[in-house]
Amino acid sequence: MERRKVGILGATGMVGQRFIQLLANHPWFEITWLAASDRSAGKPYGEATNWKLDTPLPAQIAKMIVQPNTVPTAEQLASGEVPRIIFSSVDSPIAKELEPAYANAGCAVISNSSAFRMAPDVPLVVPEVNSDHFGLLETQVSRKQNGGFLVTNPNCCAIGLVLALAPLEQKFGIESLFVTTMQAVSGAGYPGVPSLDILGNVVPFIKNEEEKLEEEVGKLLGAFKADETAGTGSIDLLDAKVSAHCNRVPVIDGHTECVSIKLKTPASYEQMVAAWREFQPLRAHHLPSAPLHPVEYDEAENRPQPRLDIARGNGMATTVGRLRPCSLLDWKFVLLSHNTVRGAAGAAILNAEILAVMGKFKFAGARQEALVNA
Ligand code: NAP
Question: Ligand 1 within 6 A of 91 CB?
Fold first, then answer.
């Protein structure tokens, strides 16, 4: 099968590097375009980036010239000079300006930034949890005009959290939850938090993080309501109270979260663990990046731990442990998720894989007849 050409906007950053690592031998996608800021444009990628990952930078990527962030013309898209599928990993203020412009030009933009996550016509998706929310794509003007669209993946803490919550919401319903995060320094990008602020320390504040986590859980676990006559739809937010404390801790990769939860229907320990272990909603699709078990429950009394459990499911699984009764709510447990793999680049790639399976990559000039309602 010919691989689809993809590009990365913000390719030199922490998340951009993860995209390169995870897409290096991807069976469905091939990187043909890399872009970043004016600081990097025009340089070979190997010179422009400060490679921080534990696998070597692929030689053919190191040689690629970083492109400027300029929105592509119809000719550049038609000729394949700029690919139609763009993974975006730029900061929110830049994303606000560039991502809609790329979608309007005719690109499928799959974004990591927070800029449009809560926009009513933009799907915020974790494929195992709410791929039906892609129905919102049909409300985007660019989609109707030229096939371009914008989808987002959630905040790095929200992804691990909703993977653990979705099976509980489906089986028992969630009334309220209280979550305290311990977030890795790679979540702040590079160079991120100064070493003198974080070594031997905990910083109990990450700007806007608690608000993002609370509201994104509501959208992710909300229900997509299709409007058949208009061919559109909207999301009914989850009717549950969510309260978050977010902290930065001196861990390199892996966000740990302590959760207390109140359910609508009582559940036993065995029922909770079975709900997590039986959760395999993508199994039939055989997506290259989907872990067989998106939620792994570990019975050991001292797990999960970032150093020991971060690579489960190739960094795409959420590890849950320490389920025990909570004297304030019903149950409490601990979860761990890889913030730059499952929490960022891997999440966007999984979104692209499910979008490919759903037939959503259809663009003007390529297959005009299949544009709308593809
Ligand atoms: P980062 O390491 O600071 O990287 C930022 C990237 O954006 C770099 O490639 C940078 O290029 C590029 N950039 C800056 N200004 C630009 C411009 N005007 N036009 C085009 N590109 C520009 O940040 P990061 O950690 O990778 O995060 C990227 C995005 O992903 C953010 O929105 C962040 O919130 C989100 N996110 C991060 C994580 C995580 O765990 N790190 C998780 C989930 C979501 P230069 O090198 O040329 O400056």
Answer: yes
Residues 167, 28: one domain?
Answer: no
Q: How far is the CA of 89 from the centre of ligand 1 (A)?
A: 5
Model confidence pLDDT, tens digit, residues 82-116: 999 999 999 999 999 999 999 999 999 999 999 99
* Cβ-proximal residues to 313 (8 Å cutoff; 6+ apart), any chain: 291, 292, 293, 294, 296
Domain extent at residue 224? 156-338
Please give the span between the terminal C-alpha atoms of the chain, in angstroms, as a whole number: 21
How many domains does one find in the chain?
2
Pocket test residue of 112, 156, 162, 342 for ligand 1, highest count of atoms within 8 A of CB: 112
CATH number of the domain where residue 26 is located: 3.40.50.720
pTM value is: 0.96
Assess whether the C-beta atom of 186 lies below 6 angstroms from ligand 1.
yes
Q: Locate tokens 């499928």: which residue?
A: 108
Nearest 5°: phi and psi at 285?
-85, -15
Distance of alpha carbon 153 from alpha carbon 223, whole angstroms? 17
258 in the same domain as 180: yes
Residues with catalytic roles: 156, 255
Omega cis (within 30) before 288: no
How far apart, in whole angstroms, are the C-alpha atoms of residue 259 and residue 272? Answer: 14
298: domain CATH number is: 3.30.360.10
53-69 confidence digits (pLDDT tens): 999 999 999 999 999 99
Going by their DSSP bridges, the two strands 331-337 and 318-325 should be labelled as: antiparallel
- How far apart (Å, rounded) are the C-alpha atoms in residues 220 and 368? 32
Ligand 1 atom 34 nearest Cα: 113
230 Cβ contact list (under 8 Å, min separation 6): none
Position in ligand 1 atom list of the atom nearest CA 18: 26
Q: Which residue has 């892996």 as its token pair?
A: 254
Task: Tell me if 274 sits within 8 A of 293, measured CB to CB.
Answer: no
Residue 63 beta carbon below 6 angstroms from any ligand 1 atom:
no
